[in-house]
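Deviations from the work plan: none for this task. Representative record:
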Amino acid sequence: MNRPDGRTGGRAVATAVLAAVFLTANPPDRLTAQDSQFGIRGLGTPGRWESVRSRSTGGAFGPFDPLSPLSEAGLADVPQLTATAMQTASYRDAVVAGTTSALRATRFPLLNVAGRVHRRLAIAAGFTTYLDRSWDVTQRDSVLLRGTLERYTDEVTSDGSIADLRLAAASRLSRRIAVGAGLHLLSGSTRETAERRFDDTTFHTVQQFAEVRYSGIGVSGSLLLGVAPGLSVTGWARADNRLRATVADTTSAETDLPRMAGGGILLAPSPSVRFAASVAWRGWARAGAGAFDTWSWSAGTEIGSGRMPLRFGVRGGQMPFGPGPTAPTEFATAAGTGRAFAQGRALLDVGVERLERRGGGLTERVWTALVGLTVRP
Amino acid sequence: MMSRRVTLIGGVLLAAACVERVSAPGDCPAFCPSGQIEIVDTVLTSIISRDSTFRGYVTALHAPLLLAADLPGFVDGRAIFRINGFGQRLIVSTADTGAILGADSARLQLTVARRDTGAHNLSLAFYRLPITVDSTTTFAGLAGPFTDSLVKRVNIDTLLARPGHKDTLTGDSVVVDTVNNVLVLALKFDTAAARYVGTDSGTVAYGVRVSADSLASIAITRSTLSWQWYLRVDSIGTPVARKPGSLGAAFSSFVFDPPPPPPDSTLAVGGVPSARSFLRVAFPHFIRDSSQIIRGTLTLVPVAPVQGAPSDSFVVEAHTVFTDVGAKSPIIVDATRTDTAIIHIGPRDTAQIEVTNLLQFWASDTTRATTLVLRAKQEAASFSLIRFYPSVAQAFRPALRITFVRRFPFGAP
């Protein structure tokens, strides 16, 4: 397993396996992505399987980015052992029925380690957010109890997420063709509480809580084609089986998870200018009532190949969960840059995203700050 | 160069600083969880059985209060007490004692812990009783002294109306303790009323009757009863005045008529001697095991209105027991596991006792005996007694109304 640079692939394998074992054994609670009120009534808010670099281009570079866990084929071109992690801080205004709630959250939605184990084989392991289930809903209402209208305040909370733990491999079959495949373990938990406080304290406060554990499995595959110099296309597909929710070792729900597919095109007319676009379909309607199949698209560019490239992008599409007969929609613009340190062994990527979601009378406007750190030891 | 890097890193850290605020008002049902808190309110009429009443837990002799009442048709109660004297001689100097010649006067201090503010012309009448009064003394046995041995009468309303609450002629006074909501009476007994008889060792005994235009019912704090002698003592042929230390009651109790009715099938609580009722509850498993109880109310139907003066209203406590061994079941006395209700005099309303704490206790520890004990909070502190229909009275049997919450559907999408 000697590489041209003289390093051995065993180090990458060891690092990847170690990371996978560690993450599978104890997935972090706060590895969630960006929350949304649209996810409260459904399974949650799907994560975005993109690194800061891809996210800053609206996600357009996601299918080609070896450090974004969206697609595996791009891994085939990872030059050396590389690890990346990402943090986001989102500031969200949710406007519904004329009421605005200012919400904010910090998340660690991505950690990925990739490396080459053979001249034609690269592998990666890491986690990303599959579904975010962190929310806190309060409500004032009343109920007729014992002949009297009793007013109360409800607070139902969920804190946690479902992580996608991925073990992926990719191989460049020829100068023009690369393929990849991935195994996805879905694992996570939420601490959920339900509380009702009556104005009339004769009725004691209702307080219930549970830790819900989730599990599931999925597979994915992808293909990357070099159509012409500077022009590449890619396609990917993924199928997840069922998401099992267990409370105190008892299965409380089993939900079908979506099949999904997507593709992208990358145009690099010069080494310092790259354009990309992508599209994806996800069959979330399988998840049950109130869920929709979704389309999403993105387009973006990266200018500059040196120590500090500039990135721009837009994306749009649908949200899988929401009230009413049609899926909520979302549109976002993003921008970012990166900076190399330590002779290129460390990369700091930053970005900012402005997102708007609409549907069912709810509008969400989100500013998200993105910070990513990539290390190439 | 360095400053630019510091600025860049600082800006990045600031932008990504940890923040968390996810609480938002819900716009339900569109943007709320699909699962809801489901409340069930049900009346369980057949889960209480094998109920019984026992009497005699606290008697007049052990009650913290001395009761006196004149409530025609209900009860005639009279407080009695005995003060033991100093004997025939008293210390007059460090080395000498002298014969007690007699008493100039005495002062009785007593605390009226409870009275009915609606009672007018509330008066206390003091009768000299035989010094042999003890725990075996009966109401009938004191009929004579309470008829012909009146030594003093004091009208509390008149005393309260006087300037400074003092009567300079009789030497009586009263202090209104608004903090503890009691009256502290200091009553002067003159030579005729307070006779120091050396051959009786100076022991005296008195009985107290209460009267008023209506609602004549008071309670005297047993522990604060005190008696101060003002004596004349022979000091080498010369009578000298001496004020020895004040004395507490060597014996105090109260007698009343009619005597309490014997226990029957009804569920009695209160009275003198105090009565307790035991109710065995078949606590449903479906509530105990998989629900959260947020309110439980024990509903009891009185057999008859509770008699007494309004001030005789009392608090009924519901306890559970460590183990159910019948009348002597040890009660768990814990404020967090005790529920109470006030029983008012007069109306024959259904009594409702909140027993939420007890039901939650049973739900949290399924090994406990699910037995309810009803007793007065201050036993033998009121003549008033309430009687409830037992479980054998199908139409009016005790019932338990429970409001509970089913398990929230956590994990449901």
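The longest helix of chain A spans residues 10-25.
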